[in-house]
Amino acid sequence: MSNIAIIEDESSTSPPTRSTLADSDINGILYNSNDDIKPIVSFGLIADIQYADNEDRYNFTKTQLRRYRNSIKLVDEACKYWLNKKYPISFILQLGDIIDGISFTNKASVNDLNTVLQVFKTNFQSLPIYHIWGNHELYNFSRRELLNGSLCSFDTKINSPGHYGIIEVCPNLRIIALDTYEFSALGVEKDSEVYIQAMELLCKHNQNEDSNDPTGLRGHQRRFVQFNGGISPKQFNWLKEQLTDAKNQNIKVIITGHIPIHPSACDALDLLWNYKEVLDLLWTFEGTVLAYIAGHDHDGGYFRDRKNIHHLTLHAIVECEPNTNSFATVHVYKNSILIVGVGRIGTYQIDCQL
Ligand SMILES: [Zn+2]
């Protein structure tokens, strides 16, 4: 594997602008006006469930309580919401961190994973669920185990050990699902080339004893922590090919991955290591790429960038306060895509011609 290029050019990111549709009152009116129009297709979004059969505890920075057992109730609530909607969803996109790293400590990885999957299965016997891998999947399982298990959602014959692929949403809309940990120190043997290269990159930028500790790092440099990762050169080239193919056929694309790629849609601590290269690539496909949807930053975020790409980072299920939730439904129409959030997630409209 060749070395990954990390370019520091932070001046090219746009200043934050607020979506004109971030206001819930405006969204409420818009959503109601669309409710009677049958979407071409609808699908569900959910992120950072991080279930564990474990007592609640605070996160690493002691700022947010992780309500592990509550998260399973919220998944069930999300499923019931989708089941009761006028227009059924065609699939669910689970954006990673389905169980928490504590499950591994408790030697309960398989049990805890099965508990979450069973909730989906009880509600939807045969609905496709596409799983994106986050850092917590890789705390619990090796990449090899994941590729052979129930969280493998794509045909990885060509891309293995990477886990990325395509979801055809409807004739003119495609999801490209990325593996934002293909280049990382997680889920791989410590003597593997990828581990050695990932640790070399981390050590170059982060001299702390614990490479998950961002102390002393400033600005976007804070992303150089071990719980993040990057896109490999092989995956980068694949993404470029996919985007070229979509553009040539006039197919619109939504990109998804566990780690966000725009500094204005997340805390810099949760950014993809080589976010800038990926962003620059997406910007060369203006008009083709509509959105990038991620999880990982539990506080969520939204930003519409200079090339009209909507960056949506979903709030985490595991850190929901009592009596709230965080999931979304994407409705695809001929002239727009409406992302309708529930609980902590807002509602966003993407104008497009499909
Ligand atoms: Zn994560």
Overall strand count:
14
- Head-to-tail CA distance between termini: 38 Å
Q: Could you state the CATH homologous superfamily?
A: Metallo-dependent phosphatases
Which stretches are low in confidence, meaning pLDDT under 50 for 5 or more residues running?
7-30
The tally of structural domains comes to: 1
Number of helices in the DSSP assignment: 9
Assembly type of the shown chains?
single chain
Hetero groups: zinc ion
- Any idea of the CATH topology? Purple Acid Phosphatase, chain A, domain 2
Class by alpha and beta content: alpha/beta
Strand content: 15-25%
> Could you tell me the radius of gyration in angstroms?
19 Å
Overall pLDDT score: 91
Question: Which architecture would the CATH scheme give at its second level?
Answer: 4-Layer Sandwich
Name the overall outline.
globular
Largest sheet: 6 strands, mixed
> CATH top level?
Alpha Beta
In what order do the strands lie side by side in the largest sheet? 5-4-1-12-13-14
The helicity comes to 25-40%
**N-to-C SSE series?**
HEEEHEHHEHHEEHHEHEEEEEE
